[in-house]
What we know:
2 copies of one chain form a homodimer. With 465 residues, the first copy, chain A, is of the alpha/beta class. Chain A is built from 17 helices and 14 strands. Chain A has 3 domains: 2-70, Winged helix-like DNA-binding domain superfamily/Winged helix DNA-binding domain (Arc Repressor Mutant, subunit A); 88-117 and 360-464, Alpha-Beta Complex (Aspartate Aminotransferase, domain 1); 121-354, Type I PLP-dependent aspartate aminotransferase-like (Major domain) (Aspartate Aminotransferase, domain 2), CATH 3.40.640. Chain A has helices spanning 2-20, 33-40, 44-57, 92-100, 121-131, 136-140, 149-161, 177-188, 203-211, 228-238, 259-272, 293-297, 325-339, 345-354, 359-383, 408-417, 448-464; strands at 60-63, 67-70, 171-174, 194-199, 215-222, 225-226, 242-246, 275-279, 302-307, 319-322, 387-388, 397-401, 423-424, 437-441. In chain A, the strands form 3 sheets. In chain A, strands 3-10-9-8-7-4-5-6 form an 8-stranded mixed beta sheet, with helices on both faces. A 4-stranded antiparallel beta sheet of chain A has the order 11-12-14-13. In chain A, helix 12 (293-297) links the parallel strand 8 and strand 9 (302-307). In chain A, helix 1 crosses helix 3 (44-57). The first copy, chain A, is globular, with a radius of gyration of 25 Å.
Amino acid sequence: MARTTTRIEQVMAHVRAGIASRTQVPGTRLPSVRAQARSLAVSVSTVVEAYERLAAEGVITPRPGAGFYVAGPVAPLALTQLGPRLDREVDPLWVSRQSLETDPSVLKPGCGWLPASWMYEEGLRRALRAQARAPSCELVDYATPTGDPALRQLLSRRMAAIGIEAAPGQLMLTESGTHAIDLICRFLLKPGDTVLVDDPCYFNFHALLKAHQVQVVGVPYTPQGPDVALFAQALQAHSPRLYITNSGTHNPTGATLSPLVAHRLLKLIDQSGLVTVEDDIYADFESQPAPRLAAFDGLARVIHIGSFSKTVSASIRCGYIAARPDWIDGLIDLKLATTFGGGRLAADIILKTLTDSGYRKHMDALRLRLARARDETATRLQKLGVKPWLKPEAGMFLWCRLPQGTDAAAVARSCLAQGVVMAPGNAFSQSLSAGDFMRFNVSQCADDKVFGVLARALAVRNVSA
Amino acid sequence: MARTTTRIEQVMAHVRAGIASRTQVPGTRLPSVRAQARSLAVSVSTVVEAYERLAAEGVITPRPGAGFYVAGPVAPLALTQLGPRLDREVDPLWVSRQSLETDPSVLKPGCGWLPASWMYEEGLRRALRAQARAPSCELVDYATPTGDPALRQLLSRRMAAIGIEAAPGQLMLTESGTHAIDLICRFLLKPGDTVLVDDPCYFNFHALLKAHQVQVVGVPYTPQGPDVALFAQALQAHSPRLYITNSGTHNPTGATLSPLVAHRLLKLIDQSGLVTVEDDIYADFESQPAPRLAAFDGLARVIHIGSFSKTVSASIRCGYIAARPDWIDGLIDLKLATTFGGGRLAADIILKTLTDSGYRKHMDALRLRLARARDETATRLQKLGVKPWLKPEAGMFLWCRLPQGTDAAAVARSCLAQGVVMAPGNAFSQSLSAGDFMRFNVSQCADDKVFGVLARALAVRNVSA
């Protein structure tokens, strides 16, 4: 009995020490009874008794069904403090903030969007003028729970053109593409679940998944899509709930999923019961449509999402989700609860722009312009020893390897000091295995300064290395 | 030993039976080891062993640090299945969906917004025409992380006018008022936390808090604000993390916080370390500003939020948060991670409308029109035995008691069958103690049909009662 008491007190002292040293700050969850017992090599009942006594003292607080928490004032969710501490230059949130701050003198080859002058400005101005004459309900009323029927009908037809059968009732409008993925994560994930992503993938997927407090496992991406053998291994090893990927043109690599990889991937997805989110925001950049997972799967286990931020306007927020009708129904509830009604104006302006007779012609010209910019940028980068990993068929990105031994984060730091925002590889890599890669947005590389600043940063790096 | 084995097997059988009967569906969390041990009157170690064996069999899955879950395919978050089963008529999500569906022949005295014809349509049309000539960056670019500086400056000045000191740097724009509260909840709450709300309160707070899987405790609301004694008791009994309330004009009661109650409330908030969210979306309806908690508190523990959906446009999504600078910083990360950049267009149009020379005049006329409509609607309701709980100083709502013994949900059901959407009291009441109340939106009561349908529904109820 005396020995048991001593052990209980030892556990209590251990917890108190953790709190005193601020290893455990107020509001954090203590290790589970089982985990604590294992780590301190005592019995489960010893830990239970120690936790109960600390709770009686008010040092920790039990939450029904959720374990014990360190008592004290609220500790807010600090995304930057979750997960391993990253260099600022490869922290997804830092990269986002740098890209989104609008000092017009700063150049942004690291950002993920087109310059304003490359967008369909005339169409948008026409749409705004037309909107100024719209019926008053379009100007002031909330949208319906699923969003503008005319836009959903148009999206349904556009999806049919790339082989995806989605009735307008299977579509729900959202505030943006990121909002679409966030809603799906809230709908399907619980903290501690595992999610597969491509490695590399769009860096904000990392920030988003951190906010959901899930485990993230990266599957290496090949020029034809994810590495199928490693994907199968990850399914076995981690029983993930969700896989989030880009379809069409992959961000950041510019790669295109091959039909063979798509087919193998879907077999694995079918067998495992994994749900897949296919983010299709670059669809309109393609000349030849790549295979869509949602087309093969018939929206059974694949959820298809998109937005208009890359081709119409990032200033007008509107995205969409296409999914199984029962999931759309649950997603509507979640959208209403967390953002109430959507807006009508954004959807109406997007619809007017997409159906404007000039949009198709504008996109044809834009695809040519991007192809030319990809070629020109690749040539200029190669002169600096910066080599594209592949030659993308579409889109604005070149995923490039820097000269051997170069630390992309250090180069990004030098460039930022000269007013050029870069996107270093490890911001995209879950395994931090892209330390010598960088993503270039060819539409933001027209200014010679980009290459001058980069050349100097690379030279300094190579001298110091 | 034999007896222990038997007990372990009993626990395993109990869990298996729960799964077989679908009491525990795939993806749900099993009771904690402690809770299960208590409810089955066995030792903690018996439950630990039973869970471990079931996990080895693949019946349940341990998640590190989060307990055991029933194995199987993904079980999405179904908001309608969380918490007690409610009558459809008082389910917040059902009330929202009915109100947001746009059959123009349906009358909506139960909805929470003005008719399109009461809004500042001319100002909006002017703003849209001006926006069509705006620089291209305003049309196509993402907003900065905190949002349009000019709108934040205007909001800072508007807040100063009601006594709230908030520098533009303490303000962040959001997609809507609900989005603002949702971000704050994600920032400050964990599942299982306790949140205080007014009883009654805006019904979507219930849906929103369900999505966060927190415990909700209602504090009875008096005509001067929350009942301070019961508020103090709730602080003692539940150690809540957050209190969410309306400032200005309270939804649904139309009550106004008195300076005395505000002061007492803030003393309690100070002592307890509770964080308070003050939702100020009805500010522009006031003639005489009511006390704001954020004004007294200096944004130390009070977070002030608002939007423009009620007075400018619900079609153009834009809200804001004013809070401590360190919290704003954390909220920016969370906003970027979950919605990426905000839009510029919505903020620009809101700014143009609010600074239009006609807005103030429009609001003056609107306040008079609402005052008249409150009087007229109260008179017509009283003839039917429907009595306003108080005479609001501002806003669009009358919170009314139906004739004794009337079930508001049943009345709402009858009215809906006749094409009139009502808002029965228990949709607003956490304790379901407002079964004979109803909220009327006076701006949506111009049509005689509202009163005719209501009179018939009340007559039937009284005959059948």
